[in-house]
Write a structure and sequence with these properties.
Layout: E1 2-8, H1 24-39, E2 46-49, H2 53-62, E3 69-70, H3 79-86, H4 99-114, H5 125-140, E4 146-151, H6 153-164, H7 168-175, E5 183-188, E6 193-200
Parallel strand pairs: 1-4, 2-3, 2-4
Antiparallel strand pairs: 1-5, 5-6
Helix pairs in contact: 1-2, 3-4, 4-7, 6-7
């Protein structure tokens, strides 16, 4: 069986004008997960990211020596577009300091999107799941035995949920658990795709890294 490791991008710049860039901590997280894979002797022979800057920069900081490919199916869903569609007369004001409220609104909005409770401009829930599946098929249609992906929480949550045959809502429950630079591992063949490890962050499990566990 071949292996596919999918890593959530490192911490982005939550609350900044441009979220789609790594924070200083994110740069350190990415370097640590890259080093951890090397220490395990796990060297990919195929590397893929989405087209988002935070994904590409995470991979760059991991310092792999394989030229990366990109697939837009690995990009995160557009939460801002979902908010605009769900709240056409004005979005709720949530302070960037109130992270609990932010994630509550995120969860409620995605669950409503899954039920087709509003029409998003960018893509429907079906569009999202179709493109994630297309990206998975792209990544596993290969003679490579070790495939590395850098993506985002929603994509990882959906890929895990689909592999388990779970209901749509389970994707969001998984999404909200996934830590920055967490490792999720699948094994695959031409006829199988199975979850082997979820949301692992041993590379951050150290007393000196107590503040390195982040979710955005």
């Amino acid at each position: 069986m071949a292996e596919l490791i999918i890593i959530r991008h490192a911490q982005a710049s939550y609350g900044a004008a441009d979220y789609d860039q790594l924070s200083e901590l994110g740069q350190k997280q990415a370097a640590l997960v890259g080093a951890a894979l090397k220490e395990r002797g796990w060297h990919p022979d195929r590397v893929i990211t989405g087209t988002l800057k935070r994904q590409i920069d995470t991979l760059a900081a991991m310092e792999t020596d394989i030229a990366p490919e990109t697939h837009p199916g690995l990009n995160e869903y557009d939460f801002q577009d979902l908010l605009t569609a769900r709240f056409p007369t004005g979005m709720p004001e949530v302070s960037t300091e109130d992270r609990r409220a932010h994630f509550r609104i995120l969860r409620e909005t995605v669950l409503a999107w899954q039920l087709d409770a509003f029409k998003a401009k960018t893509e429907s829930w079906q569009d999202f799941t179709d493109r994630v599946e297309a990206a998975r098929m792209f990544a596993t249609d290969t003679p490579a035995k070790k495939v590395l992906i850098v993506s985002s929480g929603g994509v990882i949550g959906q890929m895990v949920a689909a592999s388990l045959g779970a209901p749509a809502a389970q994707m969001m429950h998984l999404n909200l658990q996934i830590k920055n630079t967490a490792i999720t591992r699948f094994v695959f063949s031409q006829s199988a795709f199975s979850l082997h490890e979820f949301n692992a962050t041993a590379h951050l499990d150290h007393p000196d890294r107590a503040n390195f566990l982040t979710y955005s």
